[in-house]
Amino acid sequence: MNKPAILVIDDEAQIRKLLEITLQSNDYTVSLAETARQGIALTAAHPPDLIILDIGLPDDTGHNVLKELRSWYTHPILILSANSGEEDIIAALDNGANDYLVKPFRTGELLARLRSALRSTTHELSTPVLDINGLQIDLAARTVKKGGIPVKLTATEYTLLALFARNEGKVLTHQYLLREVWGPGYISQSQYLRVFIAQLRKKIEDDPNRPTYILTESGIGYRLVSPE
Fold first, then answer.
1. Residue 178, burial from CB neighbour count under 10 angstroms (0-12, 13-18, 19+)
2. What's residue 1's pLDDT?
3. What is the CATH T-level fold of the domain 129-224, as seen in this structure?
4. Three-state SS string across 51-120, please?
5. 129-132 and 99-102 as β-strands: parallel, antiparallel, unpaired?
6. Taking burial as the number of CB atoms within 10 A of a residue's CB, which of 135, 137, 142, 191 is the most buried?
7. Where are the domains of the chain?
8. In whole angstroms, what is the distance from residue 63 CA to residue 96 CA?
9. 98: which residues sit within 8 A by CB, 6+ positions away?
10. Is the dihedral of CA 154, 209, 133, 161 positive or negative?
């Protein structure tokens, strides 16, 4: 079985070395780039399975690199940046990043997020049934089961859950969810989202007050994960 290929685009030599050692010791193959131009060229020449991208690059911003890559690159992109402001995080996620991790980071958390992002690429839209640790979403029949037992959802609840399932592991911003489920006119109506997230949790979580499927990314949005 081929090892997943990861491209690191970061101008800090110490970070590149740390990531190279960490990833190689966890059975990934690693390529390194220290500028935006190098990163884009390497991606075009040898498309990796996942890209780790820094926002602060010497020849361009990571946001511009992200926008350019997303015009043709379809695999996961994880942002790794010292910028912790909500505006930066939301902009990156809305521009197509799968996840955002702030430096300094814990290697265990980074590896967990990489596994989640890579796992999400196996869920193609044509897959008739998505199974997320016992939570089964049948995209053709528009039905949901948990542990083999049917879960009754409203049409809007199902649409929201299916959107999460198709993007398993990816942080979906409030604005993105509101636009995709309710339409562009509702992107400021965050109360809609809070209500339906609460309803979904009551129906799919063992303990809605301690969710393990739908996790909150404070001030940013939500993500659907497979409970360990």
1. buried
2. 58
3. Arc Repressor Mutant, subunit A (1.10.10)
4. EEECCECCCCEHHHHHHHHCCCCCCCEEEEECCCCHHHHHHHHHCCCCEEEECCCCHHHHHHHHHHHHHH
5. unpaired
6. 137
7. 5-120, 129-224
8. 10
9. 76, 77, 78, 117, 120, 169, 170, 171
10. positive
> What whole-number distance in Å separates Cα of residue 23 and Cα of residue 4?
10
Query: Measuring CA to CA, which residue among 189, 196, 190 is closest to residue 162?
Result: 196
CB 5 within 8 A of CB 119: no
Q: What is the DSSP letter of 188?
A: T
Contact assessment for residue 186 and residue 200, using Cβ atoms and an 8 Å cutoff: no
Q: What are phi and psi of 173, to 5 degrees?
A: -70, 160
Q: What is the pLDDT of residues 145-183, one digit of tens each?
A: 999 999 999 888 998 999 999 888 889 999 889 988 887
Class of domain 5-120: alpha beta
Tokens of 24: 């190689």
Backbone angle region of 160, left / alpha / beta, with phi > 0 → left and psi within -120 to 50 → alpha: alpha
